[in-house]
Design goal:
- The complex is a heterodimer of chains A (about 200) and B (about 375).
- By secondary structure, chain A is mainly alpha-helical.
- Chain A has nine helices and no strands.
- The model of chain A has no long low-confidence stretch (mean pLDDT about 85).
- Chain B has about 375 residues and is an alpha/beta fold.
- Chain B has a six-stranded antiparallel beta sheet. A six-stranded parallel beta sheet of chain B has the order 15-14-13-12-16-17, sandwiched between helices. A five-stranded mixed beta sheet of chain B has the order 2-1-5-3-4.
- Chain B is globular, with a radius of gyration of 26 Å.
- Chain B starts with a helix and ends with a strand.
- The chains are: A mainly alpha (about 200), B alpha/beta (about 375).
Chain lengths: ~200, ~375
């Protein structure tokens, strides 16, 4: 099913037509919570790109060289999650070391990448869709970039929104969800170009 | 059957293998990325330590033998371990902010269990905290003060000694036993005079199923060694010459008797009244010792009070609740300081009564026990 679409095709499709956040609505929790400022959104976005790409590659190797040969398909969820958890831990250590302001700004959301469903989603989709190793990496990278674009766009809108008069009942998560819906509709405009199933 | 066994072994081996590889990987990362090397820790511009960085400031100080009071053990949930960090603290972490007020932010007060030591650090620690440390003490003597209160004397071993102020408390460590699965700490006020820094007394009342009190009453034996730390607290006598009114019930006696013994030794003969409330005559204890103190301190009066007098036994002292007899003994409320030790609800009722009688709220000091 995926032979027809090349590595670059998957990369761009993952960003635009099948954006993991705006078409599949995965990874909403941190999307809503950390999209107040563009700067932190970019930071979290890059952390997600790194974790997504690295874990999709690692999980692909583990799946095809360990889990499948030994017929342990039922273990894939738990194995994927521990690999993701270890990776997030590593990213956290690196960010704490390299950029303290970013570490403080990301707060508790950094450990929360572990339970960001978009990350596990990418690993599971690549298995379901029978991607090759290079396709998986480009899918992971593309999904990460797509997630970054979505959260940065949202943060940009919310920064402008700070000066707007939002009806009281819609302040915070309410208006953010409405914006996310409108953004999703905009991204749906790309679906005609190419698709991932 | 055989096939299932192989599958089971394989799955266990695969998961264990992955977990082991990841664990080794994390250990390496911890030793390289997480290794902040040696940093300088400067305390009060005076003491300088070279310490292994990368841990919380609370842990780092503990390793240097400096105990910062913390009730939660460094999980960031009690907000007690506040410390002034003059240099090297960096920005506030989101986990600190719920505990730090805006004024404290201006003074660079940090929650030292959350703050990680990454750079050279300059901190200011109040002098009295240097005195707090952990001791191994021997249970020297256990006596029954009443049917449910034991008086225990602990003795410091070797060169250990603890300087404390009358009215302060210590924390006892209760080892694992059938009522508790992990070591816990419970605080008790010292009931002896601070002049003897080689030993101290506690008065502990039995509470049914209380973890520490059950241990003390049913398990602790003379001669055993127990771990404690201290001294803590700011419930001690002010340095004024106002009149004093002490109010305590039951084992709330402890900090008050310590303060009174201290007054007797130092000859602080301020006008003082001690209203001590118990239920029945059999709950009274160390009355003779207090009567003795009345002789040493001519201006001191001890008023034991029984709330449920027994008709058959002779009792010529006060009866009723302390709030009922209080107006009789409080002559100059505007010139009096009050020191209370009891449970929280009782303290609140005493406070309300004292304020109603005209003692300003900032002259009411209290030590409440749970």
């Amino acid at each position: 099913m995926s032979e027809g679409i090349g590595v670059f095709g998957i990369f761009f499709a993952a960003i635009f037509t099948s954006n993991i956040l705006l078409t599949l609505y995965l990874g909403m929790c941190s999307f809503l919570a950390v999209s107040r400022k563009v700067k932190t959104a970019i930071g979290l976005g890059f952390a997600v790109i790194f974790v997504m790409t690295a874990t999709s590659a690692l999980n692909w190797l583990v799946y095809y060289y360990l889990i499948k040969p030994y017929n342990l398909d039922y273990l894939k969820y738990i194995v994927f999650i521990i690999i993701i958890a270890a990776f997030v831990q590593l990213v956290e250590m690196i960010i704490e070391r390299v950029s303290e302001p970013l570490y403080i700004a990301l707060g508790i959301f950094l450990p929360l990448i572990t339970v960001n469903c978009a990350i596990l989603g990418v690993s599971l989709f690549m298995i379901i869709r029978n991607y090759t190793f290079s396709q998986s990496i480009s899918y992971g990278l593309g999904s990460g970039v797509g997630w970054l674009i979505a959260i940065v766009a949202m943060a940009g809108i919310r920064e402008k929104l700070a000066h707007a008069r939002v009806p009281k009942g819609l302040e915070g998560a309410g208006i953010t969800l409405i914006i996310a819906g409108i953004m999703a509709m905009a991204f749906m405009g790309f679906t005609g170009m190419m698709g991932l199933s | 059957m055989d096939f299932q066994w192989i599958e089971l072994v394989q799955s266990v081996a695969v998961v264990c293998g992955i977990a082991t590889v990841l664990a080794i990987f994390m250990v390496i990362a911890d030793a390289t990325i997480g290794n902040y090397g040696k940093k300088k820790l400067i305390i009060n511009n005076d003491k300088e330590f070279e310490v292994e960085a990368g841990h919380s400031v609370l842990t780092t100080l503990k390793e240097q033998g400096i105990f910062i009071p913390s009730a939660c053990g460094g999980r960031g949930s009690c907000g007690l371990c506040k410390l002034q960090v003059d240099e090297g603290g960096g920005d506030y972490l989101p986990t600190e902010l719920p505990w730090i007020t805006e004024e404290e932010q201006k003074e660079n007060i940090r929650l030292c269990c959350q703050l990680k030591m990454k750079n050279d650090l300059k901190v200011t620690i109040p002098e009295e905290l240097f005195n707090i440390r952990e001791y191994e003490v021997k249970v020297d003597k256990v006596i029954d003060l009443t049917h449910d209160i034991k008086g225990i004397t602990f003795a410091f071993q070797g060169d250990d000694e603890m300087d404390f102020k009358a009215g302060q408390f210590v924390q006892l460590e209760v080892p694992e036993y059938d009522l508790c699965e992990e070591t816990i700490y419970r605080a008790y006020s010292i009931a002896s005079a601070p002049s003897d820094n080689k030993r101290f007394d506690l008065q502990i009342k039995y509470v049914s199923n209380g973890i520490c009190t059950t241990y003390v009453h049913k398990h602790m034996e003379e001669g055993e060694t127990i771990t404690m730390n201290g001294p803590y607290g700011d419930f001690y006598l002010s340095d004024t010459d106002s009149e004093l009114i002490f109010m305590a019930v039951g084992s709330g006696m402890a900090p008050i008797i310590s303060i009174l013994l201290d007054m007797a030794e130092k000859g602080i003969d301020r006008k003082a009244t001690f209203l001590f409330g118990v239920r029945t005559m059999k709950d009274l204890f160390i009355v003779d010792e207090l009567k003795e103190l009345e002789k040493k301190l001519p201006n001191f009066k001890f008023v034991p009070t029984i709330s449920r007098p027994d008709e058959t036994k002779q009792w010529d002292g006060e009866t009723g609740r302390l709030t009922e007899i209080l107006p009789k003994y409080l002559k100059n409320p505007e010139k009096t300081e009050a020191y209370l030790c009891a449970g929280e609800n009782v303290i609140n009722s005493y406070k309300a009564k004292l304020m109603e009688l005209g003692i300003p709220e900032d002259k009411i000091y209290f030590d409440s026990f749970g």
